[in-house]
Amino acid sequence: MISSNLVVQDVQVSKMAERAGRLEEIFSVFALMYFGGSFGFGNELAGAPVLPPALLTLMRYFIFAGMLLLLALRPERTLKTAMANKWALALVGIIALSFLWSPFPTAVGSTVVKELIPMLCCSLFIASRFTIRQQFRIVCWTLVLMFLVSIFLVFAMPSVGIHTVDAFAGSWKGVFSQKNEFGAHSTMTLIALFLLSNYAQKTQRWMFPFFGFCFAAVLISQSATALVLSVIGLLLTIFYKRFTWQGTKSVLWASLIILILSGVLSIVIISWVPMMDFLGKDATLTGRTLIWGYLINFAIPENLDSFLIGHGRGIFWISPDLFIGVQYAAHHIPSHAHNGFLDLILDVGMVGFSLFLITWGIAYVKAIKLAYNFKYAAHLWPVIFLSMLVLFNIFESYLARITNLYWLVFIMMAFSLNRKNLSLD
Fold first, then answer.
1. 38 phi and psi, to 5 degrees?
2. Rounded to an integer, what distance in angstroms lies between the CA atom of residue 79 and that of residue 128?
3. Which of 189, 181, 121 is nearest to 397 (CA)?
4. How far apart are CA 309 and CA 348, in angstroms?
5. String of b and e for 168-196 (b: at least 16 CB within 10 Å)?
6. How much is the pTM?
7. Nearest Cα to 107, choosing from 268, 316, 279, 304?
8. Inter-axis angle of helices 208-220 and 224-242, to 10 degrees?
9. Average pLDDT in the 1-30 region?
């Protein structure tokens, strides 16, 4: 009788734990959607969101408090996960402390408290609580739901979901502020669905319609960057899955691919301007090369302090004294460098950028090992995401500049891939 009661109690405890786990997954998806910008969408070129600012503030505090509580309930696991990657902690730490040397310490401190620290808590919780495969499921749900909300806005609120003025008029942007962001999100959703459709333990063939919708959305967004990177991302996915290290054959294929890519890159660099003229495109990539040229030649090496430790998180582009040179060089005032790496250097200098390179490099090596040792979609996801993170940040700024899904998932992966029990995921 006692034995029977114990079995019943064990079953009940197991069910309660399962339900709690599901609730934590749902809460994590909600948090990722919030930091990804799903709820702060606004009218065309307006700073005011559609949802009341008070509601958005309430969401932020609710998520932050919830993450702190969940981390506190598992102090040992939280501490172990955090200390497993000291480079990632150092990277976030230097960004958080950049108010100490910034010319606008209050502004930097405000963004650190409202954006950077909550994103860190979210990354740390998901990394410490869920396995790699569970994390992939959470990210997939987030990507798909954000995509569906964006499509809903396009049809239900066209003035919000579609560009209606300037050169981008008619391009879809969904919940995002600009078409390139929507294109980048559609690309990541496309790649995640491709992984699920082809390489999941149980192939999710029902994902194919969503896969087609995402590709159509990339085209409709009219983002050339997203279209090109969609193709590259799918090719990388196939490459990582097909050509694992199995001896000289893999080395040969890798060498040939690198040789071909190097040749194509050389042709593009040499023939850049005539190629762009032939395609009817701006050879400056809508002023990007003008911005990059000024930042690399003048703004970043302006003095030793700005070169080594930057100006503080997000300060460069809100200070007329700093960005005035960019305005003259690029003939307009951009909101960011259109390059995540340059923005990171502007924020925390070469010291912070070096910490990013080390953090990314360690995570990338571990992600490759994970991909080569396992055959499931979730085990291919980290190396694909880290590769796409680099490619996207060549033309846009998706690192620590604002709250965004890419930075959060990057820090989450950096912690997760360093866990000692990774092989058991």
1. -70, -25
2. 9
3. 181
4. 5
5. beebbbbbbbbbbbbbbbbbbbbbbbbbb
6. 0.90
7. 316
8. 140
9. 74
